[in-house]
Design a protein that fits this description.
The protein is built from 16 helices and 13 strands. By secondary structure, the protein is an alpha/beta fold. It folds into two domains: 221 residues, Rossmann fold (3-Layer(aba) Sandwich); 180 residues, Rossmann fold, CATH 3.40.50.2000.
Length: 413
């Protein structure tokens, strides 16, 4: 079907990844709209299961060497081939990359250049690939920058959350200025990137959205003890699970009969488990780890409320609009979160959910208790929440804007 069409080369850090289902959903929707894609992944999958949508994606996947030393022979061979083909242009480009690596004291810059050279020597020999697009503005976009310089192809990238706020501002500014355009998933991000770049590169806001067919509205479980409190997210500082556990301790001390279930994994798992024990919450808290989509849906259906205590981490990392909040709202679970970053673009306090200040366990506990004890206040909220998701976070609508951007890029020399 796509044999003679110009194609998009999409550079990803890893594919497929359970925690990045929005990317596989995006690829599937772009293909359904007729956009031909080739995927270039810098990392093989780390999980032994994936979302069902991945099996329907037709895009071929090329896995690049992830590390230099284990793949040194491969990388040297492919880059030598490219050097022979490009001659002086390759020498100039690698010379500039080495100078940049020295100035920034970043060995990773050399790895990114070698990966880009390998990509150009192999997969990008396909003349149908007319534009490169990277997901995340750190490593994938660094590879895209070098691949664009070596191949002469234009590139763009999508910036998300952690990748934006933990990147060196000067480095991110440079990438924006080199890109043909930038996509980001919240208006909050777009304002930050626009102020940072201060240039002429267009920056577009396109929400990720979710597949509403997978999250039908119909949650009807009336709150009753033991109350079922749910949270889904990676166990990392920005998710605020330390604050949430402190709030749960307050709820237990007040006599509330509840069961808290958490889905996800992450670097803080050991600390979180230790904190559960220290707070004597073993009988109330279940840490379930990463679960398949079907199991996650079942937990949404059983929950009386969904809570995410997001905050800005010490290194500047923060959420954009967590998809799990959108999913909970789509199903009809009342949601409680914090006024961090772009979350107020999704949740209007008292209208589509409840917002509290970050880092305030007392406020969080009070909001949870009030919601559970006064379900009549949530009946209109969950309907308004579903309406908000349908209007602004239906991924079939969201992807149309992205499809137009990428299609135009394929047709523009």
């Amino acid at each position: 079907m796509f044999a003679d069409q110009k194609q998009l080369g999409m550079i990803l850090k890893g594919y497929p990844r359970i925690s990045e289902s929005f990317i596989s959903s995006e690829i599937l929707l772009l293909e359904s709209l007729g956009l031909p894609i080739q995927i270039y992944s810098l990392r093989r999958p780390r999980e032994d299961f994936t979302h069902e949508s991945v099996a329907r994606i037709r895009a071929p996947v090329t896995y690049l060497p992830e590390y230099v030393l284990p793949n040194l022979r491969t990388l040297i061979k492919s880059n030598a081939t490219l050097w022979k083909r490009l001659g002086r242009h390759y020498r100039r480009t690698i010379g500039a990359a080495l100078v940049r690596a020295w100035q920034r004291r970043k060995v990773a810059t050399v790895r990114h250049f070698l990966q880009a050279g390998h990509l150009c020597a192999t997969a990008l020999r396909d003349p149908r690939v007319a534009h490169l697009h990277a997901h995340f503005c750190h490593t994938p976009t660094s590879v895209a920058v070098f691949a664009a310089q070596l191949s002469g192809l234009p590139f763009s990238f999508t910036a998300h959350a952690k990748d934006i706020y933990t990147s060196e501002p000067d480095q991110l500014r440079r990438k924006i200025q080199l890109a043909r355009f930038v996509v980001t998933c919240t208006r909050y991000n777009a304002r930050y990137l626009s102020r940072l770049a201060g240039g002429n590169t267009p920056i577009h806001t396109v929400y990720h959205g979710i597949d509403l067919n997978l999250f039908s509205f119909g949650h009807s479980s009336p709150p009753a003890p033991p109350y079922q409190i749910l949270s889904i997210g990676r166990l990392v500082p920005k998710k605020g699970y330390d604050d949430l556990l402190n709030a749960l301790k307050l709820l237990k001390s007040s006599g509330l009969d509840f069961q808290f279930s958490h889905i996800g994994s992450g670097e803080m798992e050991r600390q979180i488990r230790a904190r559960v024990q220290a707070l004597n919450l073993e009988n109330q808290v279940r840490l379930l780890g990463t679960l398949p989509h079907g199991e996650v849906i079942k937990h949404y259906r059983k929950a009386h409320c969904f809570v995410l205590a997001c905050k800005v981490a010490a290194n500047g990392d923060r959420d954009g609009i967590p998809n799990v909040l959108v999913e909970a709202m789509a199903v009809g679970v009342p949601v409680i979160s914090t006024s961090v970053s772009a979350i107020p673009e999704l949740i209007k306090n008292g209208v589509t959910g409840i917002l509290v200040e970050p880092g305030e366990p007392d406020m969080l506990a009070g909001a949870i208790q009030h919601l559970l004890f006064h379900p009549e206040n949530c009946r209109d909220q969950v309907k308004q929440a579903r309406s908000k998701v349908e209007k602004e976070f239906d991924n079939r609508r969201c992807v149309i804007a992205l499809h137009e951007l990428l299609s135009r890029a394929l047709q523009t020399p």
